[in-house]
């Protein structure tokens, strides 16, 4: 519940106290009631939620005794929000149910109904009932709109955006945000400034960092303009109240957070420093100066430890004088986390002291959620100093506290921490059980993890990914009971599959795998091996599923850093236009690590197709160019990539009518250079397959959407600039009118399914590439393959912008049109044709092509 919601209750109270006291049967108790409500409001805004519950519960009892149903319904909605903050879901549900019952039976002001629906939606969203939350928010929005309450209407639309995004309705998300941006310039300056601020934060959470920056800069400009007008005395007294005030420092913090998300650390530091200065000159900033200092401190710990150490004494003073409440507790925790990262014994002792303060404050406030965090992070301080018994005891206490309020989003962290502690004490079997429990807790969290971690700064790579890897590490170590090893391999494969899904869900901020799926082993192609190379802290474990055989395991001792460096060096040699001897040497080294351990098993099983389920750095490896000293891997096997164990309804392309939609750009657009080979490539394809061609100005977003939706071509071939990146904002495909972000592109392709008889069988993306130097860039490629609902995606790891691409496409369509030829075989034959052509035998021409998804 936002602070903006409270004036409604205050104004209702004020209006009631002005009415005829005899008529309303109010006594002197009403003044006490008003004081309780205001005191609860103050406690809630100070994040003293237990105290707010106590105040409002007393006030609600008084209102019930007075039969003051309107205020009772409103107050019950406030109690719902307070209980929700405390994680007391049963009490929250009881309060909102009672509030809804009242407004269904008694005539109340529209604003009160809207408030109740809004709170009900927030509770449903927090408990994972996203569709119902969306409905409630839409009800509230309609009331706010009719009553002219623009600020609350705007905030409610942002709630709807969050729900729509969680449900994966990206077209509707884009539509809502577009409506909001169009409406904002017509609003009052305060609504504009706060609206753009919220819009900027929302865009950042959705991964659209450039839009986030633009919106926040607009909010900052509005705030600064108003401050300047105030200084010149052009504003009325009313518009200078705290209610009208916009916290410039808070906007600067959001800009700093967006800069940090973009990896622009110096700019983020400068913005946090500006936020501190701006907030200190304005009295109505609440905790903004401390928030800015905490963010700055974290950045300095990473970039300038000396400067960070100089901030410690100042931070300690600020923390001590911060208002009592959850914000102060989390401030202590955030500061301590940053301080522990300096890994100094003196600073570790200070961090432990701060965490002890946070723990005591949370106990005093009876804030179980904050208490669990304080206990868990204090345990980490003890863990750093190898005080294992104390660390274990505090971790178990933090876990118990989290479980008492059913907070799975906190509990998994302490289950993981307990597993770490047990592993460090050489208790692998006990550690394994703790890790399994943490994994199960993660699987039970249905909504986007980044959305459930608003309390403390959340990083998927730091807070989630290690749990999967460390669990797999334990599962694939030799078991005390050898009879358990096969089951543990199967379990490890399930865990690494779940990691891949979680990575993509985190990348897109929604669930990707929502289509009908079939296990890879159930695909009717018995000469395929499914290969899972898994990167662990000291080795690569390779799990291989061979036809009709138990899952096999092969181990290569190698560090992740050496693997990453070898891959990066090899990629650089392959992308050069000339042959470098080290290319084959590095390719052979990687072959020895990844293929050689399982080679004899592949030969014995007579495998023809290798379906790789890749993760980490390995996603960017052009596997076709791995070299055994005499042959490239593509000379021996068909090679395909799969986003995971499950494929989207696989079937052969020959089961459909082979027609295609072709689209591309040859001219320079939006700062991108001309693609001279594209016209030849597309005209070649046009001559080989029945197709519709959209070239240059015909290739607009609207025309593409119309063609996909209005036709049933099983192949969509886009020859245009594009990039796959681990940054959602930097993953796009270029059309004539504008770049199409990957989320919109995927939604556009999927939307066509509503009017098509069959889904798209094959999406070809030529002239696109994975972002240079981005180890997780192929997430964007895998994401397109999954989110779009296409059965297969053919793309390239780097741009091949010459005649070889047209030659490749000519070969690919010719082979694809041959009877009984799979997509994987058509790709292999086309790559071999390039390899055997004297002009194109260098791996840079043929090894970049990858097929993701169904290979039939």
Q: Please, could you describe this protein's structure?
A:
The chain has 856 residues and is an alpha/beta fold. The chain has 35 helices and 15 strands. Strand 3 and strand 4 form a beta hairpin. The longest helix is centred in the middle third of the chain and has 24 residues. The relative contact order is 0.05. The N terminus is likely disordered.
Instruction: Provide the β-strand percentage band.
Output: 5-15%
The helix/strand class is alpha/beta
Shape: globular
Mean pLDDT: 84
Distance between the termini: 52 Å
Radius of gyration: 30 Å
Largest sheet composition: 8 strands, mixed
Spans where pLDDT lies below 50 across 5 or more residues: 2-31, 235-243, 450-458, 646-650
Number of strands: 15
Q: How helical, in percent, are the residues?
A: 55-70%
Number of helices: 35
In short:
The chain is an alpha/beta fold.
Ordered list of secondary-structure elements with their pairings:
Elements: H1 6-18, H2 29-45, H3 49-65, H4 69-86, H5 89-105, H6 110-126, H7 130-147, H8 150-167, H9 170-183, H10 189-205, H11 209-231, H12 248-261, H13 265-280, H14 288-303, H15 305-321, H16 326-340, H17 345-365, H18 368-384, H19 388-404, H20 408-424, H21 428-444, H22 449-452, H23 460-463, H24 465-475, H25 485-508, E1 517-519, E2 528-535, E3 540-545, E4 552-556, H26 560-575, H27 581-594, H28 599-604, E5 609-612, E6 638-641, E7 646-648, E8 659-664, H29 678-688, E9 690-695, H30 701-710, E10 715-724, E11 732-734, E12 739-741, H31 742-751, E13 762-770, H32 778-787, E14 792-796, H33 803-816, H34 823-836, H35 843-846, E15 849-853
Parallel strand pairs: 2-5, 5-6, 8-9, 8-10, 10-13, 13-14
Antiparallel strand pairs: 1-7, 2-3, 3-4, 10-11, 11-12, 14-15
Helix pairs in contact: 1-2, 2-3, 3-4, 4-5, 4-6, 5-6, 6-7, 7-8, 8-9, 8-10, 10-11, 10-12, 11-12, 12-13, 12-14, 13-14, 14-15, 14-16, 15-16, 16-17, 16-18, 17-18, 18-19, 18-20, 19-20, 20-21, 21-24, 24-25, 25-32, 26-27, 29-33, 31-32, 33-34
């Amino acid at each position: 519940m936002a602070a903006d919601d409270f004036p409604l209750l205050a104004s209702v109270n004020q209006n009631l106290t002005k009415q005829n006291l005899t008529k309303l049967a109010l006594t002197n108790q009403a003044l006490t009631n008003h004081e309780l409500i205001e005191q609860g409001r103050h406690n809630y805004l100070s994040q003293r939620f237990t105290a707010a519950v106590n105040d409002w519960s007393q006030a609600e009892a008084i209102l019930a005794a007075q039969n003051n149903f309107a205020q009772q319904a409103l107050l019950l909605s406030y109690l719902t929000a307070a209980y929700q903050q405390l994680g007391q879901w049963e009490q929250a549900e009881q309060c909102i149910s009672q509030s809804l019952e009242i407004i269904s039976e008694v005539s109340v002001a529209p604003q009160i109904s809207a408030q109740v629906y809004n709170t009900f939606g927030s509770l449903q969203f927090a408990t994972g009932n996203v569709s119902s939350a969306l409905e409630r928010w839409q009800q509230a929005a309609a009331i706010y709109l009719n009553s002219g309450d623009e600020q609350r209407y705007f905030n409610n639309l942002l709630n709807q955006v969050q729900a729509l995004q969680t449900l994966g309705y990206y077209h509707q998300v884009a539509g809502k945000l577009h409506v909001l941006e169009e409406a904002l310039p017509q609003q009052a300056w305060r609504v504009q400034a706060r609206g753009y601020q919220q819009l900027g934060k929302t865009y950042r959470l959705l991964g659209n960092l450039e839009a986030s920056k633009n919106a926040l800069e607009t909010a900052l400009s509005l705030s600064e303009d108003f401050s300047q007008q105030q200084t010149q005395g052009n504003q009325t007294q009313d518009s200078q109240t705290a209610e009208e005030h916009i916290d410039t420092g808070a906007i600067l913090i959001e800009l700093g957070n967006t800069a940090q998300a973009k990896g622009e650390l110096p700019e983020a530091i400068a913005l946090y420093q500006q936020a501190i200065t701006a907030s200190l000159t304005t009295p109505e900033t609440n905790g903004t100066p401390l928030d800015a200092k905490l963010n700055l401190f974290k950045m300095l710990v990473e970039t300038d430890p000396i400067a960070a150490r100089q901030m410690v004494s100042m931070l300690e003073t600020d923390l001590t004088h911060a208002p009592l409440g959850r914000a102060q507790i989390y401030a202590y925790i955030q500061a301590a986390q940053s301080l522990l990262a300096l890994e100094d014994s003196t600073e570790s002792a200070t961090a432990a002291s701060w965490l002890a303060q946070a723990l005591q404050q949370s106990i005093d406030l009876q804030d179980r959620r904050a208490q669990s965090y304080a206990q868990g992070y204090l345990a980490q301080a003890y863990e750093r100093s190898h005080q294992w018994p104390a660390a274990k005891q505090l971790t178990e206490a933090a876990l118990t506290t989290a479980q008492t309020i059913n907070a799975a989003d906190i509990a998994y962290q302490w289950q993981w921490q307990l597993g770490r502690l047990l592993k460090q004490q050489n208790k692998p079997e006990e550690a394994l059980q703790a890790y399994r429990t943490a994994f199960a807790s993660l699987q039970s969290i249905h909504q986007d993890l980044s959305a459930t971690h608003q309390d403390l700064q959340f990083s998927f790579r730091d807070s989630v990914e290690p749990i999967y890897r460390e669990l797999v590490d334990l599962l694939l170590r030799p078991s005390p009971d050898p009879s358990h090893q096969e089951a543990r391999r199967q379990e490890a494969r399930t865990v690494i599959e779940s990691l891949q899904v979680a990575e993509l869900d985190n990348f897109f901020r929604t669930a990707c795998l929502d289509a009908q799926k079939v296990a890879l082993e159930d695909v009717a192609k018995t000469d395929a091996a499914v290969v899972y190379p898994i990167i662990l802290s000291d080795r690569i474990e390779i799990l291989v599923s061979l036809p009709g055989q138990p899952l096999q395991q092969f181990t290569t001792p190698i560090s992740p850093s050496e693997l990453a460096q070898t891959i990066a060096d090899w990629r650089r040699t392959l992308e050069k236009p000339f042959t470098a001897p080290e290319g084959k040497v590095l390719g052979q080294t990687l072959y020895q690590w990844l293929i050689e351990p399982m080679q004899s098993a592949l030969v014995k099983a007579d495998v023809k197709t290798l379906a790789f389920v890749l993760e980490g750095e390995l996603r960017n490896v052009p596997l076709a160019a791995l070299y055994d000293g005499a042959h490239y891997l593509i000379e021996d096997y068909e090679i395909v990539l799969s986003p995971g164990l499950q494929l989207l309804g696989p079937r052969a392309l020959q089961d459909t009518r082979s027609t295609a939609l072709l689209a591309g750009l040859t001219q320079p657009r939006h700062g991108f250079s001309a693609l001279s080979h594209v016209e030849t490539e597309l005209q070649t394809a046009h001559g080989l397959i029945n197709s519709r061609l959209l070239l240059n100005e015909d290739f607009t977003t609207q025309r593409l959407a119309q063609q996909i939706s209005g036709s049933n071509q099983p192949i969509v071939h886009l020859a245009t600039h594009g990039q796959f990146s681990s940054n959602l904002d930097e993953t796009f495909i270029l059309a004539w009118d504008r770049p199409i972000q990957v989320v919109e592109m995927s939604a556009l392709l999927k939307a066509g399914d509503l009017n098509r008889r069959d889904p798209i069988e094959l999406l070809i993306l030529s002239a696109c590439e994975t972002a240079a130097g981005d180890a997780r860039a192929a997430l964007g490629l895998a994401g397109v393959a999954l989110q779009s609902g296409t059965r297969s995606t053919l793309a390239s790891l780097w741009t091949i912008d010459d005649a070889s691409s047209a030659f490749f496409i000519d070969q690919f369509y010719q082979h694809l049109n041959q009877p009984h030829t799979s997509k994987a075989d058509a790709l292999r034959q086309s790559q071999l044709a390039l390899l055997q052509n004297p002009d194109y035998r260098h791996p840079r021409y043929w090894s970049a092509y990858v097929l993701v998804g169904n290979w039939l």
